[in-house]
UniProtKB/TrEMBL annotation, chain A:
Its EC number is 1.16.3.2. Gene3D superfamilies: 1.20.1260.10. The keyword Metal-binding applies. This is Ferritin. The keyword Secreted does not apply. It is found in: Cytoplasm. Its main location: cytoplasm. The lineage of its organism: Bacteria, Pseudomonadati, Bacteroidota, Flavobacteriia, Flavobacteriales. It is an enzyme of class 1 (oxidoreductase). It catalyses: 4 Fe(2+) + O2 + 6 H2O = 4 iron(III) oxide-hydroxide + 12 H(+). It holds the Pfam family Ferritin.
From TrEMBL, chain B:
The lineage of its organism: Bacteria, Pseudomonadati, Bacteroidota, Flavobacteriia, Flavobacteriales. This is Uncharacterized protein.
């Protein structure tokens, strides 16, 4: 039998599935950042709100990048259904902890797809995802830097407001 | 045309010449481009078969399946759905195994 999948698509079906799962993950991350931005706005943390609005937009850009890549390769990109977004947080620090955990989960998922692509000799996917590896390093670092501020400046009274003002 | 996989009710064929698949759904045979075949797989995977065993979630035990940009419409019962799910998954597995075998030989 001819390899019809390969004749129609430049990437492997296993990579296609993994990338569609990643679209879902990036979409959920974008919505999650929006929920965080909303909480920050409601609690007058305007610096953090601005950061999370920007993050939400960045995650959507990541999602679109993967979406376009799949379709450009002849695959079938699936628009994600997003539900169960958490809107309840108890502190600004908790929000940044959640954001860091979310970024780590995204990094792990990207690494997993790269590992799969290597295993199946899907070098186009591996090459495409290299940009995401670099991006994730930056995303994780920016969240860790903000969490360090809580250690340095404290968590009481005016300290939180000062931390928020430092966040750009 | 070569048979890719045959389940109890359905058969998937591959046409190397036309670079597409044909799905014999018993009532009729439909032509599927590779992208349409992928879309069918997504649709079938997204069907919550568990709902068929809960009369509150799926009262009648039927599912409406629209294929190829609503060109074809099928009404399937639980057994037919289970069979279609198995056909789709096994077909992809067969295609995979065939490619691995052809590379190895």
């Amino acid at each position: 039998m001819k390899d019809i999948a390969r004749l129609n698509m430049s990437i492997k079906v296993t990579s296609l599935d993994a990338l569609n799962d990643q679209i879902q993950m990036e979409g959920k991350a974008s919505s999650s950042y929006l929920a965080m931005a909303s909480w920050c706005d409601q609690n007058s943390y305007s610096g953090s709100a601005a950061l999370f609005y920007r993050q939400a937009s960045e995650e959507r850009e990541h999602m679109m990048k993967i979406f376009k890549f799949i379709n450009d390769c002849g695959g079938n990109a699936i628009s994600p259904e997003i539900s169960n977004i958490n809107h309840d947080f108890s502190s600004l620090e908790e929000i940044f902890e959640t954001a860091l955990e979310q970024e780590i989960a995204v990094t792990k998922s990207i690494n997993k797809i790269i590992s799969l692509a290597k295993k199946t000799e899907d070098y186009a996917v591996e090459n495409f995802l290299q940009w995401f590896v670099k991006e994730q390093l930056e995303e994780e670092k920016s969240m860790r830097d903000i969490l360090d501020l809580f250690e340095v400046m404290g968590r009481e009274g005016i300290a939180i407001k000062l931390i928020d003002e430092r966040i750009k | 045309m070569k048979v890719v996989f045959r389940s109890k009710f359905y058969t998937l064929y591959q046409s190397d010449k036309e670079k597409c698949h044909y799905l014999d759904m018993d009532q009729k045979t439909i032509k599927l481009s590779f992208c349409q075949f992928l879309a069918l797989r997504t649709k079938v995977r997204n069907i919550a078969i568990e709902d068929h065993f809960d009369s509150d979630l799926n009262k009648h035990g039927f599912e409406i399946l629209m294929l190829c940009n609503k060109e074809h419409l099928f009404i399937l019962n639980t057994l037919e759905l289970l069979d279609l799910k198995s056909l789709v998954e096994c077909s992809f597995m067969t295609i995979d195994i065939d490619q691995i075998a052809s590379r190895t030989i």
